[in-house]
Amino acid sequence: MNFIAPYILMLDKKLLIIGEAFYPEDFIINDLAKEWSSQGYQVEVLTRNPSYPFGKIFEGYQNKIYQKTFFGEIPVHRVFVLQGYQKSKVIKILNYFSFVFFASLVSLWIGRKFDRVFVYQTGPLTVALPGNLIRILFNKKLTIWTQDLWPDTVYAYGFKKSKLFDKCLNWLVSFVYNNSDKIAVSCSGFTPKLSTFLKEEKTIQWIPNWPIIESTSLDPKVLPGRFNFTFAGNLGKVQNLENVLLAFKNISIKHPEVWINLIGDGSAMSSLKALVKNHEIKNINFVGRRPLMEMPDYFSGSDVLLISLVDSSIYEFMIPSKFQTYLNYEKPIFAIMKGEVPNMVKRYNLGIIADPNDIDSIYQGFEAFLNLSRQDLDQMGSYSIDLLNSTFIREKNIEKLTKLTFEETCTV
């Protein structure tokens, strides 16, 4: 009797990961690369010299045109980065093209030896172009895991939309995804928009990020307030922290025992410090950037974890990776943004939400938390584990990425 049965064929295991961000920068791709290497895959990485979020080279590294380092046993091919991109749009754009140019040269040199290419796209979609080059020239399978949706992200960062600019961006998006074999997105809301660029039907799989910071805290930090709100991550323009701090001004006057702790660094750091000084906003603790290993202690010492983004259509279906990390700590969440994250906060009773454009709404959110009992706060925090376990489990999502990247369904 003739029949057709599906089976899974494991392909060769030589993989090149391409991305602008990699260790010692703190991104989830570090965890994924280490996990794949431990499973026996022959992983190498093509990235730039480490510089995020400061826009300058990390201590201990040189900004060479090309250098080879190691992350454990994983070879890491690093290329030149234009420093200062955090403070200048012109340098930022030039840096995008700089990476494409130098990474493409390295791709021509090493690309043939790999069986598969995996693009970790956070930030510029141009990061995928060296991977597209390897696919076209050497006929290698290409998987892309999209963390930011272009062209929407470009406009959310303040670039002005024009007919020619929009046409160029749309062409780039279409080229990248139509010259990829498999596509994963970190946010399910990306799928409908991304699908419009595809010339033929492709499966777009939702594989969200998972927490990259362990939840165990051996020594919770003693933070300055009796009640502490904590924001951790990039301090940039899109985080909308100006409105958050302005809303907090009257809170700090009315409740002198309440503090906001800002952990991280970024392009808006100096302007936020100036805002605090000019508006005489009290009880703002600029902690600065801290190692990942210290973050459990800060989170454990906090009462409420804060997540905030500007009001832009793209952020309505984006899930910032800090959200999954926050869930790990069973703390109430103050979501000052619109879209999927506040919907989940409301649906699972994880905390309180506020309109990012409305300073009074943010102020009322702060007040609402301060009026809750400790029992109510603990109850909110406890619900986070249900969402974490149902959607953002590390092992389950790494398994999905592994199957997507290395396995292929065939018929016999």
Protein traits:
412 residues; 8-stranded mixed β-sheet; 16 strands; 6-stranded parallel β-sheet; 2 domains; alpha/beta
Provide a descriptive summary of the structure in words.
The protein is of the alpha/beta class. It folds into two domains: about 220 residues, 3-Layer(aba) Sandwich (Rossmann fold), CATH 3.40.50; about 160 residues, 3-Layer(aba) Sandwich (Rossmann fold), CATH 3.40.50. The strands form three sheets. The protein has an eight-stranded mixed sheet, sandwiched between helices. The chain has a six-stranded parallel sheet with strand order 12-11-10-13-14-15, with helices on both faces. Helix 2 packs parallel to helix 3 and helix 7 packs across helix 12. The longest helix has 22 residues. The two termini are about 15 Å apart.
Count of DSSP strands: 16
Supply Rg. Answer: 22 Å
Question: How many discrete domains?
Answer: 2
Question: Could you give me the name of the CATH homologous superfamily of the largest domain?
Answer: Glycogen Phosphorylase B
Mean pLDDT: 90
Q: Order of strands across the widest beta sheet?
A: 4-5-3-2-6-7-8-9
Main beta-sheet annotation:
8 strands, mixed
**Distance, first to last CA:** 13 Å
Q: Remind me, CATH topology of the largest domain?
A: Rossmann fold
The share of residues in helices is 25-40%
Number of helices: 15
What are the low-pLDDT stretches, counting only 5+ consecutive residues below 50? 1-11
